Amino acid sequence: MNNTLSQIQIKDDFKIGKVYAKERQNDFSIIMRLIIAASLFFSIAVTIF
């Protein structure tokens, strides 16, 4: 259940990232790195706990 929720969250984050990419080209890489780091950290936390 947690895995499917996190996958949906990651998809929503990617949609938000694409919107930001259209608005600001320079910040896109920084935002994507933050999103990837947050999603990885969340998945690791879910597997540990």
Annotation keywords:
88% helix; membrane; transmembrane; 0% strand; mainly alpha; transmembrane helix; 49 residues; 2 helices
What does this structure look like?
The protein contains two helices and no strands. It has one domain (2-48). It is mostly helical and 49 residues long. Keywords: Membrane, Transmembrane, Transmembrane helix. The chain crosses the membrane at residues 30-48.
Coarse structural class: mainly alpha
Supply the number of structural domains. 1
Q: Which regions contain 5 or more consecutive residues with pLDDT less than 50?
A: none
Please outline the major beta sheet.
none
Transmembrane segments: 30-48
Keywords: Membrane, Transmembrane, Transmembrane helix
Topology of helices and strands:
Blueprint: H1 2-23, H2 28-48
Helix pairs in contact: 1-2
